[in-house]
């Protein structure tokens, strides 16, 4: 089984990206392909095209969100780009479609309810989310689901100490690392049958 896991590089004023930190510090089998995406509209598309062309059986995508202290398992990707701030490449599309006249929404085919239950049973705070945002995370998720591959997107909170901004929510680094490992193990077992 070919599995690719992505995370994002640093963005904005944060000194790191919790998704990059958790993936790079996770103890995963060596046959799993790890890729780190740019937080840049143009570069992300190029990087994703290369990943999708390698035809993984499963694409697990991680991103960062400081909105909550729970992990968000994203159900949908929307056909919208509506950046409230510029990405690392200076791009700031407003109310644009990702794919002109494409479907408004894609839903992952992965059993996210079972994944959420598994995480909660293993003391990882998580919930199913219906809003992946309108920034690079949603963009990459939409492009991946549009390709037809099995893909899932998961938002991780920032890790404790990553930023001093009190508007963000945080989880312990070790919880984030454990979450990446458990998610990978669960999904690999689910789709290796």
Please describe the structure with a list of short key phrases separated by commas or semicolons.
Aminopeptidase, globular, alpha/beta, 5 helices, 193 residues
Write up this protein.
- The protein has helices spanning 18-24, 41-53, 112-121, 136-146, 173-191, and strands at residues 3-8, 33-37, 58-64, 71-74, 76-78, 105-107, 126-129, 151-156, 158-159, 170-171.
- The chain has 193 residues and is α/β, with parallel strands linked by helices.
- The protein has one domain: 3-Layer(aba) Sandwich (Aminopeptidase), CATH 3.40.630.
Task: State the end-to-end distance.
Answer: 10 Å
Low-confidence stretches: none
Strand content range: 15-25%
In angstroms, what is the radius of gyration? Answer: 15 Å
Mean pLDDT: 93
* SSE series: EHEHEEEEHEHEEEH
The CATH superfamily is Peptidase C15, pyroglutamyl peptidase I-like
Alpha plus pi helix count: 5
Helix content: 25-40%
Number of beta strands: 10
> How many domains make up the coordinates?
1
Across the major sheet, the strand order is 2-1-3-8-4-7
What structural category arises from helix and sheet content? alpha/beta
Briefly summarize what is shown.
The chain is of the alpha/beta class and 193 residues long.
